[in-house]
Amino acid sequence: MGVKQFKLPDPGEGLVEAEIVTWKIKPGDAVKVNDIVVEIETAKSLVELPIPWEGTVVELLVDEGTTVDVGAPIVSIDVAGAEDDPAPAGAGDAAAPAQTPAPEADSGERVANLVGYGAVEGSTKRRARRALHGHHEHVATSDPLPPPDLHAHVATDSVPTAPTRPAQDGAPSRSARGAAPATPTAAASGKVLAKPPVRKFAKDNGIDLSQITSSREDGVISRADVEAFIAGGAAASPAGAAQRAGFAGPASYDGERETRIPVKGVRKMTAQAMVGSAFTAPHVTEFITVDMTRTMELVDRLKSDRDFRDVKVTPLLILAKALLVAIKRNPEVNATWDEAAQEIVLKHFVNLGIAAATPRGLVVPNIKDADRMSMLELGTALGELVGTAREGRTPPADMSGGTITITNVGVFGVDNGTPIINPGESAILCFGAVRKMPWVVTDEQGVDQIVPRQVTQLSLSFDHRLIDGDLGSRFLADIAALLEDPARALVWG
Q1: First-to-last C-alpha distance (Å) of the chain
Q2: The pairing of beta strand 335-338 with beta strand 361-363
Q3: Which of 138, 151, 283, 464 is catalytic?
């Protein structure tokens, strides 16, 4: 038997890190080849990772919520017939063992004697971004001071020994550390020791951890300590926190006055992409109001068609098909700008992006070669694409290579918008809500009548470097014409 470390694989698309979202296994579990063991979040999507070996789980090396680099070990597996993987450089140095307190008898915590635990010789500072989520932060007993980011968390399996500060007013010096109390406390170290879940629990309840005294020998504040502090009458509100800090704030607030949300994963990638697009591509947006009555009638007919019984037929499907037909009439719209070569690159294929709102932010997966699909094939692909995106499980390959995008704000009851072009594309079409509105209709005798019709608004944002006003206007007008009379697709298609 040998212990092998499963390292975070490269998810592709140039991504260099991922966050551990959910472990599907625990120490002691038996795993088989290709069993899903962990769910990770990259900057583009959620991805489930299979294990390449059969064996027994020895240790989860990274906590949930931790961001790790590609190639970093995340779990160790005891594999029959395998040799032990070498320990990471500097880990487990016998010459400088970590001073690790023994776990409590009933705490169920692990002893720090596995690969990746123990003292780290010549510890270096990690980037601040990692400091918030790191799992293996250790301090060799010879280090003069704890790492600057030690207050942000404490490793889940070992607690660094807090150094005693220089002698003041008769206090013991570092050289007399043997006479000092063995239990590190927040008061002695100037740092609050608590695991990330406990810090979050305290923050959610408006509790200042520096006001809590740990009940544990190692000085680490536990969730039970926080709960006891709250039960003891401590105000779990911003007003209570202010009073503990010496401020007389209003007592009418029931929750925190503000919440900070880390910008990472999909949300971070979206923010960077939108800022880059807004300040590099000269956006122009045009609008048109469309009578959708015939399109809505077509939707009803398709819903009752047996060929479409397994497809979710919506106005978005008809719009997508209309856009693809309009691209055939205006192929110059389906292009991209090559800044390095100063060229316009026409695409002879359409990878149709559909913006989808997910719990982790807005993502834009795309349907590959959508222009070659029938209405039925397009409806099936659209349903699968949106469903997978909303579950957060879109593979990175489906997030790249798009040529044009549709964003459907109508599902939120919004009439219109001025969308920002997806990077690497030339245009994005915004689909507003479909509403019954009064509409002027001219009958066969040339008489105008005001009748209720199904009406929507479309807007098209395009890159003015490669799409001028004439091309953009013709393209948008063609889409509107197809929605007003879907039968035109038989002539234009």
Answers
A1: 64
A2: unpaired
A3: 464
Per the listing, tokens 């006891």 go with: 228
Q: How far from 311 is each of 293, 295, 303, 306, 314, CA to CA, in Å?
A: 21, 17, 8, 10, 9
31, 98 Cβ separation under 8 angstroms: no
CA distances from 92 to 95, 139, 386 (A): 9, 12, 47
210 is in which domain, residue-wise? Answer: 180-262
Q: Report CA Rg, the chain.
A: 30
- pTM given for the model: 0.54
Strand (E) or helix (H) holding 475: helix 469-484
Looking at 208, 236, 262, the residue that finishes a domain is 262
* Residue 217 lies inside a defined structural domain of this protein: yes
> Catalytic site residue 464?
yes
Is 173 within the bounds of a domain?
A: no
Provide the 10 A C-beta neighbour count for residue 259.
Answer: 8
pLDDT tens by residue, 19-67: 888 899 999 999 999 899 998 887 666 778 899 999 999 999 999 888 8
The upper half-sphere exposure of residue 370, i.e. CA atoms within 13 Å in the direction of its Cβ, equals: 32
Do residues 120 and 140 make contact, with C-beta atoms less than 8 angstroms apart? yes
Same structural domain, 412 and 315: yes
Q: One-letter amino acid identity for 85?
A: D
